[in-house]
Amino acid sequence: MRRAARHRFHVAAPAAAVGAQCAADEDEVDGGVATLEISILMSAVLLVVFALIQGGFWYHARTVALGAAEEAVRAERYDGSGGGGAQVAMDFITRVGGDRVLQAPGVNVQRSPLQVSVTVTGRSMQLVPGLTIEVSQSAAGPVERFTSS
Fold first, then answer.
1. Strands 115-124 and 102-111
2. 29 pLDDT band (50/70/90 cuts)?
3. What are phi and psi of 140, to 5 degrees?
4. 30-60 pLDDT, tens per residue?
5. Secondary structure letter of residue 99 according to DSSP
6. Which residues pair with 136 in a beta bridge?
7. Which of 13, 137, 147, 148 is deepest in the core (most CB within 10 A)?
8. d(CA 16, CA 24)
9. Which pLDDT score is estimated for 22?
């Protein structure tokens, strides 16, 4: 019996050494896979980050266009001759960031005897080259006027 026990111990030792060598080989292979997984994961994370930043640029340009349209409506509502709202809108856009925030801005003022409406258009800043996102915001309000009773 002693011989069998000794034989088992002797056989187990080389198997453990072979197992340790296999584990070392697996670590080398897993290291390459881990690098590939990280590179794919980081690409996806960067894509999400860039999309969030681009969405922020769009939202900010949209907010600036709406603010400019509202300022132009306020100016046009109280101006008896009309025509000053477009300049007020362009001044507002320049004051809050100019062509960096809302690129190629355009202002369209429509005035009737009872109503004024303003539409401000442009493009948001772009993080990704070639990606153009258009922005258009409108505001409207009644014209202030004196009436006789």
1. antiparallel
2. low
3. -145, 160
4. 657 888 889 999 999 999 999 999 999 999 9
5. G
6. 121
7. 137
8. 12
9. 57
Task: Tell me the residue type at 57.
Answer: F
Cβ within 8 Å of residue 144, ≥6 positions away: 77, 78
Q: What is the mean pLDDT of the segment spanning 54-69? A: 95
φ, ψ at 110 (rounded to 5°)? -120, 125
Question: Are 127 and 55 spatial neighbours (Cβ–Cβ below 8 Å)?
Answer: no
d(CA 7, CA 17): 16
Distance CA 115, CA 126 (A): 35
Neighbouring C-beta atoms of residue 44, cutoff 10 Å = 9
Of residues 109, 39, 36, 99, the one with CA closest to residue 71: 109
C-alpha closest to that of 114 among 84, 81, 143, 80: 143
Going by C-alpha positions, the residue among 114, 56, 122, 112 that lies closest to residue 89 is 122
Which CA distances in Å does 137 have to 5, 31, 104, 128? 87, 52, 14, 23
Provide the whole-model pTM: 0.72
Q: Which residues pair with 141 in a beta bridge?
A: 116
Query: Which among 97, 98, 90 is positioned nearest to 69, based on CA atoms?
Result: 90
Return the closest-CA partner of residue 137 out of 72, 44, 69, 82: 69
